[in-house]
Amino acid sequence: MSEVAGPPVEVVAGVIRDKTGRILLARRTEGRDLAGLWEFPGGKREPGETPEAALARELHEELGITVDCGAPLIAVPQRYPHKRLRLDVRQIAAWRGTVKGHEGQALVWAPPHTLATYAMPPADIPVVAALLQPDRYLVTPAPNGSDAAWLEWLEAALVKGVRRVQLRAPHCPPARWARLVEAAVDACRRHGADVLINGDLALARAMDAGVHLRAEQLAELDARPFPKDQRVAASCHTLADLQRAQAIGCDFAVLGPVADTPTHPGETPIGWDGFARLREDVALPIYAIGGMTVDDIAIARANGAQGIAAIRALWG
Questions:
Q1: CA 272-273-276 angle, 5° bins
Q2: Which stretches of the chain drop beneath a pLDDT of 70?
Q3: Residue numbers belonging to the annotated binding site for 8-oxo-dGTP
Q4: Tell me, what CATH number does 65's domain have?
Q5: Domain that residue 66 falls in
Q6: 245, 305: one domain
Q7: Given this model, what pLDDT does residue 135 score?
Q8: What is the model's pLDDT at position 1?
Q9: pTM here?
């Protein structure tokens, strides 16, 4: 995609829920960019406005409601053919009034599990993932000790709330790894966690688990290797990797290293600015990896990430 000059347009949007937990979407009207697509309500932030003031003004003008802004959810940098924008999305803690489309826009109250079925602009797609999918992605270390100890550490991570796991064990003998994977997949399912197996498509199929593609595997694929009910993710380091992951229909990607990490010594970290620049050109949910801890989730979300992927920070 060609470069678009100038700073991004600052846009704010709100996640508005009704008493049953449904979420409000608005349809872009004819004559606007991306007409007909559904989005989280909001609009442009004017110079000198805080994000909270801009969102309160926009929602009052568009919907006729008064709102109390809550916590930030995610801020998505996105590049379009003719502009760049940064979509700053906030939870709406409370609202008063009667919701009505004052600009002629169609509105719908969508149950959360249906959000992904609505056609949306690229910047809004990661917002759905931020609402519905885990903000941390555990990558397992190699089982250098006993199998029992490794499985105990996995169980401890799941008890602490990890709900998405990549089973990865470089250089582990195949027979031993197959036994560990079977037990690990069972543990993840008992805790309701997504589980993906690194690199081994045959083992993932045998376990009916998802697969996490290595970057070199990704480059060789022309299509998604699994059906939609089995997760497919990919490790990415470049814009070309991300675009390939999106083109073949990956559910999410991991991008980095963002910071220095002992597991990839000598690799130059891309930093948060580099992460955000690469984030601009795809609509995939993307985890930041490389030197990440749980304390980095907020800054990751502020740069458009789904959250963080890590080994040490999430293990056990």
A1: 85
A2: 1-3, 5, 263-265, 316
A3: 28, 39-42
A4: 3.90.79.10
A5: 9-127
A6: yes
A7: 98
A8: 45
A9: 0.95
Q: How far is CA 131 from the centre of its chain?
A: 9
CB atoms near residue 216 (< 10 Å): 10
So what's the pLDDT on residue 260?
A: 80
* Binding site residue list for Mg(2+): 42, 62
Describe the strand order of the beta sheet including 66-80 as a list of residue ranges. 42-44, 9-15, 83-96, 66-80
Whether residues 77 and 182 share a domain: the answer is no
Residue type, 122: P
The pair of three-digit structure tokens given for residue 152, joined into one six-digit string: 């105990």
Q: Are strands 66-80 and 42-44 parallel, antiparallel or unpaired?
A: unpaired
Residues 156 and 297 in one domain: yes
Same structural domain, 104 and 249: no
How far apart CA 195 and CA 163 sit, in angstroms, is: 8
| Cα 165 to chain centroid, rounded | 14
Is residue 41 in some structural domain? Answer: yes
Q: Are 253 and 242 in contact (CB under 8 A)?
A: yes
Same domain, 154 and 109: no
- Report the number of distinct structural domains present in the chain: 2
Nearest to 281 by CA among 90, 76, 17, 131: 76
Residue 263's pLDDT is: 67
Please indicate, yes or no, if residue 4 is contained in any of the structural domains.
Answer: no
Judge if 114 and 162 occupy the same domain.
no
Q: pLDDT at position 62, please?
A: 97
Give the CATH number for residue 279.
Answer: 3.20.20.70
Annotated binding site, which residues? 28, 39-42, 62
For residue 138 the two structure tokens come to 């555990």
Taking only the tens place, the pLDDT of each residue in 184-208 is 999 999 999 999 999 999 999 999 9
